[in-house]
């Protein structure tokens, strides 16, 4: 199938009520409002398709762009592909999910994540923190630069309160990810989170909440899941 055929398949699956929900998260036209559960049915059929993912993302249609991330062959994504994707990601769902998930699964996740967090553009910086959070969730600890991650935790503690809302939310999620998935740094992440205290951010007209990191990490610890990695960042 090509991108045009996929768009034709997506259009009747759209829901105006779901569209209103995701528009509150910064999504804009063109968009059909296709639920993720319906996108997943297409993913099961297509599985991975590098070129189709690129073509879908380039349509500018939100549903197609989100689907592109789900079917992207992360290992084949080039640095140029990922830089183009993050430049075109105009809302937090694309930056914090689509781009971050694919970048984390690529060969360039650590490099680009650290580059993006220094961007003056809030959505690019948010994508950077989300990429790093996804990365620690899927990479074995021996593949991670633990001293560098520890320094990033200190950076979060020092700068989170002055960061833009979108960046602040992803910083908090990165802190939770480190505490939950990197056992050698769980205690450090917990200490950092407790010193920071509750994190607040403007989430707009949505039901989203910024979780209190220590409570979240304790729940993961209580169910015995600290350090258990995910097979994929995508969901």
Q: Could you explain the architecture of this structure?
A:
The chain is mostly helical. It folds into 2 domains: 72 residues, no CATH class; 144 residues, no CATH class. Helices cover 63% and strands 0% of the residues. The chain has 13 helices and no strands. The mean pLDDT is 97.
Put the structure in a nutshell.
With 235 residues, the chain is mainly alpha-helical. The chain has 13 helices and no strands. Helix 7 crosses helix 9.
Comma- or semicolon-separated keywords:
235 residues, mainly alpha, 2 domains, 0% strand, globular
**What general form does the structure show?**
globular
Mean pLDDT across every amino acid position:
97
Judged by helices, strands and strand pairing, the structural class is mainly alpha
N-to-C series of helices and strands: HHHHHHHHHHHHH
- The count of DSSP E runs of length 2 or more, i.e. the number of strands, is 0
Spans of at least 5 consecutive residues whose pLDDT stays below 50 are none
Tell me the number of helical segments per DSSP (H or I, 4 or more residues long). Answer: 13
Radius of gyration: 18 Å
Tell me the domain tally: 2
Distance between the termini: 23 Å
